[in-house]
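[job 0412] stage=fold_complex status=start
inputs:
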Amino acid sequence: MRLPEFEYFEPESLEEAINQLAKNNSCTIIAGGTDLVVALKQRLQNSRYLISLDKIPSLKKITKKDDAVIIGAMSTLDDIINYTLIKEKFPALRKAAWDVGSPLLRSIATIGGNICLNTRCRFYNQSLFWRSSREECFKVGGNICHVAKKKNSCVSTFSADIPPVLISYGARVKLVGANEERVIPLENFYSGDGRFPNVILSGSKEILTEIEIPIPQNNLKSCYHKYRMRESIDFPLIGVSVAIQFNEEKRCGDARIIITGAGTGPVEPAQVRGMLLNKKLNANLISDAAEAAVTEIYPFKTTLISPRYKREVAKIIISEAIREVGGI
Amino acid sequence: MKKTIRLVLNGEEKNLLVNVNQTLLDVLRDDLGLTGTKKGCNQGECGACTVLINGKPVSSCSLLAVKADGKSIDTIESVAKEGHLHPIQIAFNEKGAIQCGFCTPGMILVTKNLLEQNPNPQIDEIKEAISGNICRCTGYLQIINAIKSLAKS
Amino acid sequence: MTNYNIVGKGIPRVDGPAKSTGKAIYTVDVKLPDMLYGKILRSPYPHARILNIDTSEAKKLPGVKEIITGQDLSDVRYAFVDTPRYPADERPLAVDKVRYIGDEVAAVAAESESIAEKALSLIKVEYEILPGVFTAEEAMKHNAPVIHDEQLEGTSAWEQWGVAQRKGSYESEIKVNNLSGHTSVSFGDVVKGFHESDYVREDSFELKATAHCQMEPHAAVASYDPIEQKLNVWLSTMGIFLKRFFLSKVLEMPASKIRVHHTFVGGAFGGKIDLFSYEYCAAYLSIKTGKPVKIELEREEVFMTTRQRHPMIIKIKTGIRKDGTILAQEVKAIADNGGYRGSGPVVIFLCHGFSFPIYNIENYSYEGFSIYTNNGIRGPQRGHGAPQIRFSIDSHLDLIARDLGIDPIDIMRKNVRHEGDVLPNGDKLNSCGLTECIEGAAKAIDWENKRMQFRAKEGNRRYRRGVGISLCSMFSGAMYYPFASAAIVKMHDDGSATLFTGAQDIGQGSFTTLSQVLAEELGIGMEDIQVVAGDTDLCPIDLGSFLSGTALVTGNAVKLAAADAKRQVLEGAAEILGVDDIDKLDTLEKKIFLKDNPEKSISFQQAIQASVLNRDGNPIIGKGFYKGYPQTDRYPSLAKGKGLFTSAYGFAAQAAEVEVDTLTGKVTLVKAVTFHDCGFPLNKTIVEGQVHGCVSMGAGQALSEEVFLENGQCFNPSFLSYQLPISLDTPESVDELVATIEPSGPFGAKEVGEGSVAGILGAIGNAVHDAIGVRFYSLPITPEKVLRALGKI
Ligand SMILES: Cc1cc2nc3c(=O)[nH]c(=O)nc-3n(C[C@H](O)[C@H](O)[C@H](O)COP(=O)(O)OP(=O)(O)OC[C@H]3O[C@@H](n4cnc5c(N)ncnc54)[C@H](O)[C@@H]3O)c2cc1C
Ligand code: SF4
Ligand code: FES
Ligand code: FES
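[job 0412] stage=fold_complex status=done
writing structure:
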């Protein structure tokens, strides 16, 4: 499969990039391209214009600013893995970046691309020829979902590794459009609609420029657990990020558990935050929390693995992750 | 649409006129005849197309050629120098790490980077380093052994 | 054992330098001046009638040079199996119907791949969609859609090679729908055997389609020279002479007008034997356009439209005495060969052929069916039937052992065959190390201490370990076109030699092992040998690298050619050394010396010079040839399992230690043990590499690999979704060679490279049972299946 015809621009400033984005209708940002190039070959992406962010140096910086780390959207996963402050303060972020794909992708894949990654489905991530065997589904503009036949919407699965971690750290992202620039909590970036799972894929014509993560207090403990069939190359079947702020008596303060692979966007099981609040972690509490968490995920058969199995392993890795954070 | 890129390819500075919709792999294989870089899957899943970009291994089928602008690219053709096989190439052959050879260029380039970063890799680190490179023939064992034999403790 | 200088050593591969520097040219790397690029339009439907094909828009696209459809070539038919009983049923491009998703409908040649792809999208095909059928069992039912309703003529392309052209129809007595092949073999009296048994058990197993995953995609380059009327082709293939034969038949060209050129082959594993539509189309398009045409398949096409391993259902009933002696066994196997016959009738024959050499069962009956469905075509894959049957039988015997409370190894030991045994078809086991293999494998896996121990000790622990064992066997070449291999050894002035062989090195190292045979026999060094191979114009015929025949058949041919050259060298030397009898001479390290006075010697160079000057200019060319099965002149019967199958069987015992995560259901192969009787190992490193490759593939197929099909559509046509093993899945591996000496093999060698994929499946299944007390009757044993079996989901 060869790449389709398109035009390619490499603006040297953000303004220029945004102008081009605003000017043209069929226009897509390319970061590392590890996902986009495949989508183009499979004709899932048919943009006439690609705008590369390669020549905008400001987007590649990682800096410390006051109480936060600012990561430029074009930082590669390798940059993130090797950045000392991230190693020290955000072990879960480093782990999630390390867990993405295979080593051959991580020196070009970017964090921005990971955040903006499209949702996936076994009926969608296929070639044009493959898809021509059946009716077009919602995600490619059709009127049916092959996975959830009764549902009137697309349930394709969010499968990026890094966003759950960022959300559990309370990260915010900066989106720059032609008329405004806004900073929003990352969880608000995701729409929940499988067809257009995030603000940018919904057509906001914005560029994600940077991620801001507050530097946590020492008593914030975090980790990321990814479950996949092969320990490299594969997307997460389920990934869980846990970040818990402990108080002096080792009771849980704010506890954030974010799951990937379980819905059309990152999923935060709401009950669990409350369940853990002010409690000391113990085996029973953890297993109750994990049980409760999986009642709030609704996996569909968008991969070759059954939702029942997903739910079961979600429970296991959620409790494993909480246990690791709690040192149990 | 075409664009001119400047890069250092196998140690030589080059200006290349490429189509913007070509991957680096396409340019290497189709335009430059550097067919040592293989196409196994064309979608970032097998590592047959590995090249070193600024020293780091990358799947060249997933990279637009235009994005190689300003970079230094090394392909398998650059590994043997002045008519002599590189020690990695010798070790691979002596230890049986080569069968059909289709994954071999990628494996060797990954090994080169690994040993530069970590001259004494442990078995786990070796397995991790080659975990994006699929080999169907060898079952990996002799590849792992070959790399281990190059480790300097 | 004799001390050899070169064979038996782990000598580095002769093609290693070319492969490790990127210089080795594979078919996908071939690029000719003014070359066109071909693409194939395929059916998106599993079963449909073609009503109309409109290529007019596509033809208008600038850069498109030629478009062909089935109408242009309606008479052409070919197939892997082509006999009066089983007439060829494939066409390069569909004429009336399409029978699986990916079936070829049209082919385009254009100036670039992009243009060719664009042209495909402009071809309009009207289909009438027909009901499809997707499992063999459904397809056999009387009301199932009939997939092949066309009348196929019963003449065989192999007529001049001994396939009898019988008149009359082959109306089968078996009345099932969509039957594509049937095998029935029996000996002894099964009913009586069951009657006399103390215990009888019946089980049913299911195996899924798997993919070869050769890393080099299938590709062909064809270049027709209209003046010479010669077709040059470069193919990623396992057998150049077989391909040439097929091409000459379907293109109706003399064989000598087709030249297959050598390229390296980036993996085959059985999946590059059949003639494929894209090969035919490349040739045809080149003939029509007068330009070279290249067709390289996408990875997705390799998965969906080349070949897969046959999914099978295998039912086994065994009667056994309390002491473990098997008295009777009845096996029924049903293989789904997809939309065309592929190797259906062969795989059901081989399920028998690769299994009956193992246990000596007096009363035995086997019945195999191959069935058409609307799935992708199935063909040979490493072991070709052996993994399916060996997994089933050894899982079944393990269950019986548990029922009877005896050690499965005792059952194996009691019933395996031995050296000297004559098989019911007449094949004689001139070498058979099965007993040694079993004992070695059991010891290496620590059978006594580990079996049943883990479970007992570990109680309710999350991770449980278990061990299992299984056996396998494999032919070393068989009677199939071209039936024989030959070799030519050409001596050079400087005393070195060039070996001309038609063999292909598909990664299994045959150029190296054949060079070793030559060097050893001739008494020269590896560095003195060049190999010219894989070229039908330059090289003598060769069996091809399938049915594991290269080491034995081609190896023998090379050895004979070397001996022939050596004799001539000695004759040249005898005159100079003043010896009357060449038997008084021998060679070593490129020198000829007197056996009783090694000091007295001359160099090869001198001997060759002497030969040219004193013996009428004889420059010394050695020739050797060897037939696949010296004692027979006919094909074994696929339908009746009669006739001789092979000159030597390779055997292996494989044991596995697994760890099961009872929470996630993931099974990890911790340790794999293979005791392999491959006769004399010509090259230890290469033999070990073959075994590791088999183990890895077998482990993949046992635990994660499956071509996932829904209504004939493959859901995982990529390395991301088809879960083949990666480096992190590599187990600890012990492999020992039980070096028997195969009297018919060169230096005692026989097959290696296929067999040991088959035993690991049963070993893993049995080990999982040992670990968690649950039996899996189908593969792969995925985490999901494990949790289901444990009642957790
Ligand atoms: C074999 C394989 C395995 C993979 N495994 C994993 C995995 O395990 N986990 C995982 O999370 N991902 C995986 N990926 C997906 C992908 O490689 C990563 O998510 C990667 O981080 C994407 O980054 P990129 O820079 O390459 O994105 P690109 O491909 O360049 O872009 C991805 C999407 O984001 C948009 N985009 C990118 N940057 C911006 C921006 N700054 N502003 C606005 N829009 C933007 C693009 O338009 C595009 O839609 C895998 C991919 C492959 C091919
Ligand atoms: S979930 Fe349904 S609509 Fe969405 S991509 Fe899959 S099949 Fe299409
Ligand atoms: S060809 Fe690029 S990763 Fe497979
Ligand atoms: S040697 Fe064949 S794929 Fe690795």
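[job 0412] summary: Chain B touches chain C through 54 residues (CB under 8 Å).
[job 0412] exit 0
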